[in-house]
């Protein structure tokens, strides 16, 4: 009899896992059908969400209620669906410049509103009631900044509750007394999975609720769901999942919501190769969150070994946008071999709907323990400074008619232009535009400066680094971001 019971239990687990794998694969394959196409840029604004929320308000499947407002008076909405006893609460964008999961929430809502996956959705919505609070910090989102209008980090306001957004989050959590909570964020794209070159595309955390980092049933349940989600993501982003630092932060909402009895799962969206607007990462959020909700609904997470949580590699911060290795750098009549790590920093345009890059050298020397989204082995190449093109052009339009790669081949990385439009913030060409009176600083490779130099081999310039972008001077500079304008 004992053998039969064990066999039956194992058989049940195998069947449940097979069903979850099936739904996960189907969710990934059919994602485009539910993707909210009106949201496709990270700098999503409050007004873009309102027509979508209004649509769900008119839909009898959903309940939409105002649960507060921001300092500047923007309404905070809670969208709910389901009739189950297990309350699952998901909130996003408490930091205004962390929008990836906000977009994924509307993809999930579209999925829940569809006529597809009826069996799976029935299982979810009979077992769970789902509550979504998208864009908790709409004032910060308006100017694409982390903090709210008061200048407060909402995620450090769980004790004093100084901000109306913080009070709304606390009030909703308490009114629901949610069983599970998903705290949805973005993290730096420069995090990598520990001791690997792979970015931490998604990082998870079951936050600690005390300094001792004890594990009770509430936190353990969050850990088990995280292990499940990690298994899902390994299919689509192998090796690109990290585990966020779990040091207890007594002011943080995630840590306190865990302490208040809600099994809390932090999801941090990081970087992914050639995914500047994080649309592939958004898809991974969609798949992993829906899969997690499914395992919560059927309870299969209970059988997941808790010890597997610690096997997820920790976050590390060892990534650069561009890493140049083994380049020869002449300095004071001596040659030195160095690595250079550089990052492309985003500068918002005035309306905060778009940006341009202003890059910096972050480190140099022996960077053998660091990695790059793009890495170039410059063995045999010598770093040489760029020159100013000898002719002054009348306009940017004239520059557009020149073959920029030829200018780079001849060693020119700067070009003077008489009439630079006042509203022009960056150069779309792989060469810096400078004003008539601008004096180019003396060349040096040092931390903090804009990375602009040439790479020469056997007396010929083969590559240029312009504003932190590597350009092959023998090819078209396709995919180049931007160079600088120095007036």
Quick description:
The chain is of the alpha/beta class and 487 residues long.
Secondary structure topology:
Layout: H1 2-29, H2 46-57, E1 63-69, E2 75-82, E3 86-92, H3 100-113, H4 118-127, E4 128-133, H5 138-142, H6 164-176, E5 180-186, E6 192-193, E7 202-205, H7 217-236, E8 241-243, H8 253-259, E9 263-269, H9 279-298, E10 315-316, E11 319-331, E12 334-348, E13 355-365, E14 371-377, E15 382-384, E16 387-395, H10 396-400, H11 404-409, E17 412-419, E18 432-434, E19 453-457, E20 460-466, E21 469-472, E22 485-486
Parallel strand pairs: 3-4, 3-5, 5-9, 7-8, 11-14, 16-17, 17-18, 18-22
Antiparallel strand pairs: 1-2, 2-4, 6-10, 7-9, 11-12, 12-13, 15-19, 19-20, 20-21
Helix pairs in contact: 1-9, 3-9, 4-9, 7-9
Task: Write a structural description.
It is built from eleven helices and 22 strands. The protein is α/β, with parallel strands linked by helices. It has two domains: 12-316, Zn peptidases (Aminopeptidase, 3-Layer(aba) Sandwich), CATH 3.40.630; 319-486, no CATH class. The strands form five sheets. It has an eight-stranded mixed beta sheet with strand order 1-2-4-3-5-9-7-8, sandwiched between helices. A hairpin with a 2-residue loop joins strand 20 (460-466) and strand 21. The termini are far apart.
């Amino acid at each position: 009899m004992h053998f039969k019971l064990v066999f039956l239990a194992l058989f049940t687990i195998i069947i449940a896992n097979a069903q979850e794998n099936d739904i996960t694969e189907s969710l990934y394959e059919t994602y485009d059908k539910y993707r909210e196409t009106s949201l496709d840029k990270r700098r999503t604004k409050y007004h873009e969400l309102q027509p979508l929320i209004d649509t769900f308000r008119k839909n009898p499947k959903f309940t939409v209620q105002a649960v507060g407002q921001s300092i500047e008076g923007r309404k905070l909405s809670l969208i709910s669906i389901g009739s189950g006893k297990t309350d699952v609460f998901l909130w996003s964008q408490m930091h205004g410049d962390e929008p990836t999961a906000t977009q994924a929430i509307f993809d999930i809502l579209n999925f829940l509103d569809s006529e597809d996956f009826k069996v799976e959705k029935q299982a979810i919505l009979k077992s769970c009631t789902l509550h979504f609070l998208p864009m908790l910090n709409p004032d910060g989102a308006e100017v694409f900044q982390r903090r709210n209008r008061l200048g407060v980090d909402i995620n450090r306001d769980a004790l004093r509750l100084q901000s109306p957004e913080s009070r709304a989050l606390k009030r909703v959590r308490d009114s629901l007394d949610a069983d599970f909570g998903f705290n949805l964020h973005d993290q730096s794209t420069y995090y990598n999975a520990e001791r690997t070159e792979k970015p931490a595309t998604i990082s998870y955390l079951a936050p600690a609720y005390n300094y001792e980092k004890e594990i009770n049933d509430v936190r353990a349940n969050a850990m088990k769901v995280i292990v499940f989600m990690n298994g899902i993501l390994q299919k689509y982003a192998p090796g690109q999942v990290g585990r966020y630092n779990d040091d207890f932060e007594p002011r943080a909402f995630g840590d306190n919501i865990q302490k208040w009895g809600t099994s809390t799962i932090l999801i941090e969206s990081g970087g992914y190769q050639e995914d500047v607007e994080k649309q592939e990462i958004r898809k991974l959020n969609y798949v992993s969150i829906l899969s997690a909700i499914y395992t919560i609904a059927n309870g299969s997470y209970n059988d997941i070994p808790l010890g597997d949580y610690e096997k997820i590699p920790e976050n590390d911060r060892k990534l650069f946008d561009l890493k140049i290795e083994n380049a020869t750098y002449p300095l004071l009549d001596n040659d030195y071999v160095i690595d250079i790590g550089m990052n492309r920093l985003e500068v918002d345009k005035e309306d905060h709907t778009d940006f341009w890059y202003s890059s910096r050298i972050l480190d140099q020397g022996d960077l053998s323990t660091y990695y790059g989204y793009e890495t170039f082995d410059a063995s045999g190449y010598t770093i040489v400074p760029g020159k100013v093109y000898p002719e002054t052009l009348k306009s940017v339009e004239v520059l557009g008619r020149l073959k920029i790669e030829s200018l780079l081949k001849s060693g020119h990385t700067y070009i003077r232009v008489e009439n630079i439009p006042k509203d022009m913030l960056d150069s779309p060409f792989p060469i810096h535009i400078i004003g008539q009176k601008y004096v180019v600083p003396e060349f040096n490779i040092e931390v903090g400066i804009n990375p602009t130099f040439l790479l020469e081999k056997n007396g010929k310039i083969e590559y240029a680094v312009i504003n932190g972008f590597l350009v092959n001077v023998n090819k078209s500079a396709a995919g180049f971001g931007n160079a600088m304008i120095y007036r």
